Amino acid sequence: MLHSLSGRAESAMQARLLTVLRDQGPLPRTELGDRLQVSRTTIAAEVGRLTEIGLTQETGPAQSRGGRRSTMVALADDIRFVGIAIGATGTTVGVTDGRLDVLRTEKVDCRIDMGPDVVLRAALDHVRRLLDELGVERPMGVGVGVPGPVDFGRGVSVAPPLMPGWDGYPVRDTVSRELGCPAVLDNDVNVMAVGELHAGVARHARDFLFVKIGTGIGCGVVVDGELYRGVNGCAGDIGHIQVRGDGRRCVCGNTDCLEAYAGGAALARDATEAAERGRSVVLADLLVEHGRLRAGDVGTAVARGDLAAATLLRESGQRVGEVVAGLVSFFNPGLIVIGGRVSGLGHALLAEIRGTAYQRSLPLATGNLPIVLSELVEAGGVIGAARLVSAEVFAPAVAT
Question: How many CB atoms lie within 10 A of CB 1?
């Protein structure tokens, strides 16, 4: 069995060293010293201490650059993190190594509106099974993402519109207690943005936006390579920006929110209406076949040449594009990544978002602005959650 590691970084220097090894992989001691701008003696002492407490290991001599060969340093082989990405209609759990490479993932069919006790119990049952299969007695840490506002410092959800029963529930502390390790909680969009930063199309970007289109809509904001949460953790809540509409009521209680027209639930509702009112034979057939329609069925109908579905997709993409154009004018990002379950509608949706955003933004802001689809799919939430908790675990322990 792989055992949990009780050691924690004891200084800011050790935390920086662990972060470099997490993000860059094994490096020679000499290169670590160059990157951290400290002497070889300091690096040797810090690596020695981290090896003593089980966080790093030496993996043999480095390639010679002339003179005495340096020693390769890597994160310990038995470091394991857990990522739990909870969505409105399902959850993905996974286990990573210290470099956040995903070792195993599993999907859990469990709706968020079933409440925290049911959802967390199902997720933790699957996590324990994965840990058993990998021979891990206890992970070093677990990160959790949920589809709603989060008080990051307290580790609780705060008045989440899509999550009845979750308001104030101690998600972080519950998961930490159940798995016997440190835990962090953040909203799913921030978690996915961090996943993109680490292993996705944004891994070389310093300032970018991650727009998640799922049952809800949100935006992760990364500034100078760091996640920006805002004063109260509400940065990026773009799903409740008002758009042109007909007074449609949103789950938050307001009217004409973007989410009420372009979110996955909104698309499914509009598709069902089109099927039931005879505006789409294809959607009507899919409704009979599946019993209910989801956002993905709109993409299926579009692929079959259905005009009503194409109109739904076009209008959804245009509304998202209008909001994205406002974000571009305000934030001037270097990259925009579109992700989430509804992004599975693919390039037809992306084309509408791009076209509207480019048309409504100034050329200076969009001249070199890529707007692209995420390539991480389900893994993004697991990787992002694991990275968030790794930062917590690698940070120096604070004496109390």
Answer: 10
Helical ranges in 6-160 per DSSP H: 12-24, 29-36, 40-52, 116-134
Tell me the two tokens of residue 316.
């959804």
CB contact at 8 A, 135 and 129: no
Question: Are 169 and 156 within 8 A, CB to CB?
Answer: yes
Neighbours of 149 (CB within 10 A): 19
CA 25 to chain centre: 21
CB of 186 closer than 8 Å to CB of 172 = no
Helix (H, G, I), strand (E, B) or coil at 307: helix
Per-block mean pLDDT, blocks of 10 residues, the chain (400 long): 59 94 94 92 93 91 69 95 95 98 96 96 98 96 96 95 94 97 97 97 96 95 96 93 94 95 96 97 97 95 96 96 96 96 87 96 92 92 97 75
- Which candidate, 188, 146, 155, places its Cα nearest to that of 173? 155
**Nearest residue to 72 (alpha-carbon basis) of 49, 43, 97:** 43
Cβ–Cβ < 8 Å for 259, 211: no
- Do residues 274 and 312 touch, judged by C-beta distance below 8 A? yes
CA–CA separation, 195 and 173 (whole Å) = 23
**Beta-ladder partners of 336:** 209, 371
Sign of the dihedral defined by the CA atoms of residues 157, 159, 164, 168, in that order: positive
